[in-house]
Amino acid sequence: MAVLRLFASIRVAAGTGKTKIPGNTVGEIVDAANTRFGQAFTELLPACRIWVNGEQAELDTAVIEDDEVAILPPISGG
């Protein structure tokens, strides 16, 4: 299973910053996370960027055991 890391508002929506989720692609992991974490999580996803092992990824990006899939919402600073 891949390690899903969540940050900022999407972390709050999920109620966790790190979990393991099964899937062979980023899309499968995102689908499983949507099911697990619900509507608030799902609503935030379109604005987020997804990275696998530190590289920007698309939904069809393949993942293997222990890959790190990170979901980062836009963050404003000041």
Question: How would you describe this structure in keywords?
Answer:
26% strand, 5 strands, 78 residues, single chain, alpha+beta, 3 helices, 5-stranded mixed beta sheet, Ubiquitin-like (UB roll), 32% helix
Description:
By secondary structure, the protein is an alpha+beta fold. The protein has a single domain (2-72), classed as Ubiquitin-like (UB roll) (Roll). Helix content is 32%, strand content 26%. The longest helix has 12 residues, at 26-37. The relative contact order is 0.29.
Write down the Rg: 11 Å
Q: Looking at CATH, which topology would you report?
A: Ubiquitin-like (UB roll)
CATH architecture assignment name? Roll
What is the averaged pLDDT score? Answer: 95
Strand content: 25-35%
The counted number of beta strands is 5
Strand order, main sheet: write it out.
2-1-5-3-4
Estimated helix fraction: 25-40%
Principal-axis shape equals globular
The CATH H-level homologous superfamily: Beta-grasp domain
- How many independent structural domains? 1
Low-confidence stretches: none
* CATH C-level category: Alpha Beta
Helix-strand makeup class: alpha+beta
Q: Kindly, what is the distance between the CA atoms of the first and last residues, rounded to a whole number of angstroms?
A: 37 Å
- Total helical elements: 3
The major β-sheet equals: 5 strands, mixed
H/E element order: EHEHHEEE
